[in-house]
Design goal:
This protein has 257 residues and is mostly helical. The chain has 3 domains: 68 residues, Multidrug-efflux Transporter Regulator, Chain: A, Domain 2; 66 residues; 104 residues, no CATH class. The chain is built from 11 helices and 3 strands; from the N terminus they run E-H-H-E-E-H-H-H-H-H-H-H-H-H. A 3-stranded antiparallel sheet has the order 1-3-2. A hairpin with a 5-residue loop joins strand 2 and strand 3. Helix 5 packs antiparallel against helix 6, helix 8 packs antiparallel against helix 9 and helix 9 crosses helix 11. It is globular, with a radius of gyration of 24 Å. The chain starts with 13 loop residues before the first strand and ends with a helix.
């Protein structure tokens, strides 16, 4: 990012294309940050065009740094709204995320190197090993991006609950969710406040409570996760279509009213 020289006026204001060139970003990026509420210039020209200041440049530098560290724009907005004292914790968490990603990449690189030595011999076991590593990395990536929706305390509680979550229990729970999603799909025409919809909502809440243990902090993270479905990674496949999740959400809201 290009710094403003000392000869420039502290009160200088820049139009979007000037500020974009000065900061080393695109005008499109500036408009996107504005729409998200990350960088809203306080000044406008008489014609209504955005005007950026030195203060906006400092804000943009924070956005660029956090984005470079792999933080989603949604989470960047939350960080910038908080006190500066939270920045060390935020950076520490992001360091842990990047360290885990590096560990996964190192593991993948080692497996690829090993497979490359014998792949010419037609050893199918190497391909199976590569496929298994790719699957593991994808699963780890899923956990990484999902973690952004939970507080550190909530993630610690989830780790504690894993001790109670056996493979058999996971299999039974997955089956229950699959059955529930199928029934919801067939009931999308129902009024969310109807008895049938409310019964489906109650079953969904029971399954959620089984995962959260009734902990409100974990529940809050889940709510944030599912309310932000439009920003989920493209390679992540939701277990149910959006309309099914929307129906369950509406039924649950009707249940609380």
């Amino acid at each position: 990012m290009k710094p403003i020289t000392v000869t420039e006026s502290r009160s200088a204001l820049y139009q979007a294309h000037e500020f974009a060139e000065l900061a080393g970003v695109t005008v499109r990026a500036l408009h996107h940050y504005d729409r998200l509420g990350l960088l809203k210039p306080a000044h406008r020209s008489e014609a209504g065009y955005r005007l950026y200041s030195r203060k906006d440049l400092a804000r943009l530098e924070q956005i660029v740094v956090l984005k470079f560290l792999g933080m989603p724009l949604r989470e960047i907005g939350e960080v910038l709204q908080q006190e500066t004292a939270t920045l060390p914790q935020t950076l520490q968490h992001q360091q842990q995320v990047l360290t885990e990603q590096r560990r996964q990449l190192d593991k993948a690189i080692a497996v690829i190197a090993k497979a490359s030595q014998s792949i010419g011999n037609g050893d199918e076991s190497d391909w199976r090993l590569l496929a298994s590593i790719i699957k593991e990395i994808n699963m780890q990536n899923d956990k990484t991006w999902m973690g952004h929706y939970f507080t550190e305390a909530a993630k610690a509680k989830i780790e504690e609950r894993k001790a109670l979550w056996s493979p058999e229990l996971q299999e039974r729970t997955d089956k229950k969710w699959k059955e529930l999603y199928t029934e919801v799909q067939a009931s999308l025409h129902e009024d969310p406040a109807s008895d049938k919809a409310q019964a489906l909502a109650a079953r969904a809440q029971a399954l959620i409570d089984e995962f959260t243990g009734g902990d409100p902090e974990i529940q809050k993270g889940l709510t944030k996760l599912y309310s932000d479905r439009s920003n989920w990674p493209e390679n992540f496949k939701s277990p149910a279509p959006p309309e099914v999740h929307d129906f369950i959400s509406k039924a649950m809201r009707a249940r609380k009213n």
